[in-house]
Amino acid sequence: MTTTSKVHTPVSLYGFLTPKPGHADELRKLLMDLVEPSRGHEGSLQYHLHEQDDGRFFLYEVWRSQEDIDRHNATPLLRAFMDGLPEHVEGAPEAYSGVMRSPHPDTAG
């Protein structure tokens, strides 16, 4: 009997969000409300929120695969967050993604 296992290449997402004046507290709450549910989504390897000294928020996420990110992005929770985001941020989010080249212990195979 032959078994096949799918090899996943972790993908990281990271970026900054700058709150509009007077919106930092609300944006912080909205972002914090994403942390635990997102960590529970299939394929989430890391999900962290940081607050910079200059008031910007920095998100760092690592997902098992692009398919997991796509599923996460389609959840009602994230869709509602993204729909309301322009009300609270100045300009577009500064967002980046990339394939993780260093081994991640949760995907070693």
UniProtKB/TrEMBL annotation:
InterPro entries listed in its UniProt record: ABM_dom, AI-2_Isomerase_LsrG, Dimeric_a/b-barrel
Record's keyword terms, sorted: Monooxygenase, Oxidoreductase
EC primary class: oxidoreductase
Keyword Oxidoreductase: yes
Highest taxon listed in the record's lineage: Bacteria
All copies of domain ABM, residue ranges: 11-100
Gene3D superfamilies membership: 3.30.70.100
Enzyme Commission numbers on file: 1.-.-.-
GO molecular function: monooxygenase activity
Claim: Oxidoreductase is one of the keywords in the record: yes
PANTHER family linked to this entry: ABM DOMAIN-CONTAINING PROTEIN (PTHR33336:SF3), QUINOL MONOOXYGENASE YGIN-RELATED (PTHR33336)
Record's protein name: Quinol monooxygenase
Organism: Nonomuraea insulae
Organism lineage: Bacteria, Bacillati, Actinomycetota, Actinomycetes, Streptosporangiales
